[in-house]
Design goal:
4 helices; seven-stranded antiparallel beta sheet; globular; single chain; alpha+beta; Alpha-D-Glucose-1,6-Bisphosphate, Chain A, domain 4
Length: 161
């Protein structure tokens, strides 16, 4: 068996999602950077129960969110862990972070995420970009993009609170 036949597979992919929010860049940045606000839009409303949420929003800071899939989910009882390290933060303009996602202790993806906030006549144009390596069990880039689309909808709901 050759190395390529026995090695795990990985899918590399990049996707971008654009959203327009009728709120200032300062308001959008606050929802991305304030732990109480981020927890509401990012860590709730899933088919999971949140067990841990820690956020250290600064360059070099780390976030951690630990979820447990509920009984009605496709993965009942499984543990889902997100670990983030902030790479670059420009208040009201940009956030860049690297994150990994693990399921039951096995890494399923590693990604670089960029949130760009651009002032517009309507408020803020947000450009979200994810550059990822998706391993077995990750659901691939399509599933991740679908997940982020839902999260960005929840961000909009948080802004309207």
């Amino acid at each position: 068996m050759s190395l390529t036949e026995s090695a795990p597979t990985v899918i590399h992919s990049t996707f971008a999602i654009e959203r327009r929010y009728n709120f200032s860049p300062e308001n959008v940045f606050s929802a991305l950077s304030q732990p109480t606000k981020k927890r509401r839009w990012y860590a709730t409303g899933r088919s999971t129960e949140l067990e841990e949420f820690e956020m250290d929003f600064r360059p070099g800071g780390r976030d951690r969110a630990l979820f447990r899939f509920q009984a009605a989910s496709p993965f009942p009882g499984a543990e889902l862990l997100y670990e983030t390290t902030y790479q670059d933060i420009v208040p009201n303009r940009r956030i860049v972070y690297a994150y990994s996602m693990s399921m039951d202790g096995r890494c399923v993806s590693a990604s670089l995420v960029t949130f760009e906030l651009q002032p517009s006549d309507a408020g803020t144009d947000l450009i979200f970009t994810e550059q990822g390596a998706y391993f077995e069990g990750s659901g691939g880039p399509q599933m991740r993009e679908e997940g982020w689309r839902g999260l960005l909808e929840q961000l909009g709901a948080e802004l309207a609170r």
